[in-house]
Amino acid sequence: MALRWWIMLCTALIVAVPLSLLAGAVWIAPFAPPVRNALPILFELRAPRAVLALVIGGGLGAGGAAMQGYLRNPLADPGLFGIAPLAALGAVLALASGVAGDGWALPACALAGAMVAMALLALIAGGAGAGGIGRAITLFTLAGMMLASLAGALTSLVISLSPNPFALSEIVTWLMGSLENRSWHDVLIAAPPTLIGIVLLARGGPALDALTLGDAAARSLGVEPARLQARMVIGLGLVVGAGVAVAGIIGFVGLIVPHVLRPLTDHRPGALIVPSALGGALLVLVADSLCRAWPLTGGELRLGIALSLIGSPFFLALLLRLRRGIA
Amino acid sequence: MLRAHALTVAGRLHGVSVELRPGRVTAIVGPNGAGKSTLLAALAGLIAGNVSLGDRALSTLPPQARARAIGFLPQGHDVAWNLTVATLVRLGRLPHRTARETDDRAVANALTAMALNPLAERPVGTLSGGERARALLARLLAGEPDWILADEPLANLDLGHARALLTHFRHLADAGKGVVLVLHDLAQAMNHADHVVVLHRGSVAAAGIPDHALDSAVIARVWGVESHWLGEPRKRALVW
After folding, report:
1. Is the Cβ–Cβ distance between B47 and B41 less than 8 Å?
2. Which of B36, B39, B41 is nearest to B183 (CA)?
3. Rounded distance, CA A114 to CA A121, Å?
4. CA distance A255 to A76
5. Contact assignment for A220 to B45 by CB distance below 8 Å
6. How distant, in Å, are the alpha carbons of A239, B31, B73, B153, B175 from that of B37?
7. Please, what CATH class does the domain formed by A40-326 belong to?
8. Residue A90: which residues within 8 A CB-CB, separation 6 or more?
9. Which of A62, B33, B57, B162 is most buried, by the most CB atoms less than 10 A from its CB?
């Protein structure tokens, strides 16, 4: 990516973070007379939320870019391997069984779900690397789709068997994805795995670059399929699992951010991972600020919904432009 | 020397032994399904088998070291993303952990060798078939491997582009590189190779200098076609 785009992306982030701290049900104007409880609102409510938005958005952006590079397909999404649905299943089980009241139980269950997904993927598709990257990817995608549909069915089962309407509403609200009422405690849960995941994925960049030339050429350039596969499973498991653990299911970021940023790079998948992390962080931060600032009776706008509302028109415009380009 | 010894790949190759020397162009020919691509992939270390490079088994070389020694150009012109030609060619430097200046020089040399300088900033999506084939070969050359293994590099190329590429392979061999090409056109193998390996049903049917390995008897036995060569050495045509 050209230096000016790096500067623009970083500047946008630097400007967006303080702005996001000021926006919300209570607007805090920096130069106006101080609002009551301004400091607790800023440091206990909004700052952890902003950090969490950056962390989760960064993870999903990087995950999306890596996934598109690995599958050599611009329509791939980090949710495709079934890691997110299984993590969600873990969280839903925690909510339904009532153990979620304890602060650590829900994220722990979600992370456990993500780990089960990673283990199952490795078990089903592992070793396929010997038959070439193409075969590994096919097996992998099919295994992921199977896991996703199984996890979706089990989640629906848990919802339909849910013991009381409160648990039911809690589950449904949680599944929509939100950063409402998250604290530093959640940052502590999500940040380390996400950062490790982003580093793992970014370090796989050269292998993804080689994969641009196809399976055989990539292997002839020294790429080891099994290693790349392990890196992708662990990296994606960490970023997606950590995201779902603290914020529920947040779609769209991993699909759209790499798509938007790709033309600003030299189109190498490896060159897109870090910019996508920054872009994802920015998108989720802005979307979450909108959620807070948008007055809605009966609570906040859910982050998942806000992202779709922002993203869909944008994506449609992009597709129209693409169509005009082709026509 | 790149050597396969009694190489067997289940269902495809049965005890194939070949010895390839640097400094010459070797052509691997044979009917469809004879195992040409499999043999080339095994020689490149992509399929496990009894292949040695110098005095070392290829399987014991770390993948990056193997990639620096052997450049492999697969069949087809597959490029997943719309990279510029210069970025594409730079991918050839991936196995090397060298300074940026060294990489820049290798990329510039490869672009020049393939006459791609005017196209360096063009996206590969806008290239013609011949230009794309040259760009992919330049990617391989940027890695500066000792061995250049290419699977049907001349497929779908017109006469001019095919001749230009063959001339390049000759220059590379003259510069001491080992060049191994899977070819479909027997006249190209006859006229441009120093050594020919004829594969038939996963075994070596003939190997040696083109005049011997590709004589009419071999062609009749392997391809089932009665034919004879016309013209002078290095400018022969096959009629049947």
Report:
1. yes
2. B36
3. 11
4. 7
5. yes
6. 40, 11, 11, 12, 25
7. mainly alpha
8. A109, A110, A111, A112, A113, A114, A116
9. A62
> Between A184-203 and A47-71, two packed helices, what is the crossing angle to 10 degrees?
20
Q: DSSP readout, A262-278?
A: GGGTTS-GGGGHHHHHH
Distance from CA of B236 to the nearest CA of A (A): 33
Q: How many helices (H) and strands (E) does chain B have?
A: 9, 12
Report the amino acid identity of residue B132.
Answer: R
Q: What is the DSSP letter of A300?
A: P
Across the interface, whether the CB atoms of A222 and B95 are under 8 A apart is answered: yes
Neighbour tally for B185: CB within 10 Å: 16
- CA–CA distances in Å: residue B216 to residues A206, B36, B223, B240: 48, 20, 10, 10
pLDDT at A7: 93
A223: its two tokens: 């790429």
Domains and CATH numbers, chain B: 2-239 (3.40.50.300)
3-state secondary structure of B196: strand
Average pLDDT over chain A reads 85
Considering only alpha carbons, which residue of chain B is nearest residue A265? B83
In sequence order, which residues have a C-beta less than 8 Å from that of residue A184 and are 6 or more positions away?
Answer: A44, A48
Q: Where are the alpha helices (DSSP H) in A81-164?
A: 83-97, 105-125, 133-160
Rounded Cα–Cα distance for residues A55 and A195 (Å): 8
Q: How many Å apart are CA B234 and CA A41, to the nearest integer?
A: 85
Please list the residues that pair with B150 across neighbouring strands. Answer: B73, B181
Q: Would the CB atoms of A267 and B74 count as touching at under 8 Å?
A: no
Cβ A29 vs Cβ A42: under 8 Å: no
Closest to B4 in 3D by CA, of B33, B34, B68, B47: B47
pLDDT tens-digit readout, A159-193: 888 878 888 888 888 888 888 888 898 899 899 99
The crossing angle, in degrees rounded to 10, of helices A303-326 and A273-293 is: 130
pTM of the full structure: 0.89
Domain coordinates in residue numbering, chain A: 40-326
Are A253 and A64 spatial neighbours (Cβ–Cβ below 8 Å)?
A: yes
Residue type present at position A98: G
| Cβ A185 vs Cβ B56: under 8 Å | no
Question: A133-160 vs A105-125: helix axis angle to the nearest 10?
Answer: 140
Q: Please, are residues A48 and A30 in contact by the beta-carbon 8 Å criterion?
A: no
Taking the C-alpha atoms of residue A199 and residue A174, their distance in angstroms, rounded to an integer, is 28
Backbone angles phi, psi at B174, to 5 degrees: -60, -30
Which residue matches tokens 């691509």?
B37
Q: Which residues of B touch A210 (CB under 8 A)?
A: 91, 94
The closest of A50, A33, A32 to A41, measured between CA atoms, is: A50
Tell me the residue length of chain B: 240
Tell me which chain A residues have a C-beta less than 8 angstroms from the C-beta of B78.
213-214, 217
pLDDT digits (tens, 9 = 90+) for B139-151: 999 999 999 999 9
ipTM entry: 0.91
